[in-house]
Amino acid sequence: MSQIYLVGGAVRDELLDLPIKDKDFLVVGSSPKEMLKKGFKEVGQDFPVFLHPTTGEEYALARTERKSGKGYKGFSVDFSPDITIEQDLIRRDLTINAMAKADDDSIIDPFNGQQDLKNRVLRHVSPAFAEDPLRVLRVARFAARFYHLGFTIAQETLELMRQLAESEMSELTAERVWQETQRSLETESPWIYFQVLRECGALKALIPELDKLWGIPNPEKWHPEIDTGVHTMMVLEQASKKTQDPTVRFAALFHDLGKGATPSDEWPHHKGHEEAGVPIIQKACRRLKTPKEYQELAIQVSRYHLHCHKMFELRPNTILKVLKGLKAYRNPEFLKQFITTCEADFNGRLYNEDKPYPQGAHLWKCYEASKDVDTQSLIEKGFEGIKLGEEINKIKLQQIKNLTF
To answer: Where does residue 383 rank: exposed (0-12), middle (13-18), buried (19+ CB within 10 A)?
Structure first.
């Protein structure tokens, strides 16, 4: 007779008193034929997963996995009815994810996940952890997700992550790397994800443009924290406090990649790093296969963030150029994202964390003052084509001048 258990994240989050987003169920002692007979719909490609006929929730057959090739796909799977709950749980990554809850509410916890929850430790279940390079990213993501609760990674788990980072990162597809990275950008503390990847050596393999920033100095006058990598993490932390928007957080992460191209004999100054960052961001985004909106914001933040910082020093025609370069008149939401990222860059410096950023508000005021032009009346006056565009720009410029001078 088959048994059904609630497994994985739902059990973990319930024990942590966190909201449960998804429920995954494990079926022990059954077969695909029996599940289909009960009305379940099969959806799994690599192994049998079924949707409940009423609730639509996922039910997977208990299975074991054996390493049979390279990378995270190199596994042979067995899902025979005689596989036990303990045999299924041992294949999971972390002890806190290797628990199950039975119908009578008892917890099946063969690997002391409850104790690790209590001690706030992320610990691998078995040596088989080292067979799947994707687990390096997953552990880094859990470290970011639960950092605010005080979780840390067990030293022995970190050592296995270092071993994987040295040998198998190239086995990961861009899609899986981006999936984990994007999910990490949506956590409570996304900067921890990148710090963990750097600590175990995986960041150098996956995003070398970012890893390169540690050890590159900035002028102490503007950056008391000195190190560009440290500054970048501070900026990402500030962005995470200001917004849950992962595109803003990503732009914060990539805003200073251009400093990696500065010759060392020019340090700590980075003249032209704004534009130098554009092709570096493009290359990294192509490799990671990031969505277009992530790349676009990151590029424009790299290109114009110093303009925003110097708002009160800019001439009105330069402000108009920045607004047009940011396509603010077509997409004001993009401008808001840009300003938020620039504010995070300003606050992401030692002793600057709580300082106001009036430059961002001023750029928005300039947009508000110049966004409305009565184009129809200009057309009625005979303006058309290039002349119409020039007249619109002239009016916008005057509106900005009225605001700033």
So the answer is: middle
Q: How confident is the model at residue 85 (pLDDT cuts 50, 70, 90)?
A: very high
pTM > 0.85: yes or no: yes
pLDDT, tens digit, for every residue of 338-366? 999 999 999 999 999 999 999 999 999 99
CB 219 within 8 A of CB 268: yes
Running DSSP on this structure, what letter comes out for residue 125?
A: S
Q: Alpha carbon of 320 to those of 142, 342, 368: distances in Å? A: 43, 18, 12
Question: What is the CB neighbour count within 10 angstroms for residue 203?
Answer: 24
Q: Which residue matches tokens 């979780």?
A: 151
Find the helix packing angle between 292-309 and 316-325, rounded to 10°.
Answer: 170
How far, rounded to the nearest angstrom, does the alpha carbon of residue 334 sit from its chain's CA centroid?
Answer: 18
194, two tokens: 């990148």
pLDDT reading at 141 higher than 70:
yes
Residue pair 60/32 in contact by the 8 Å Cβ criterion: no
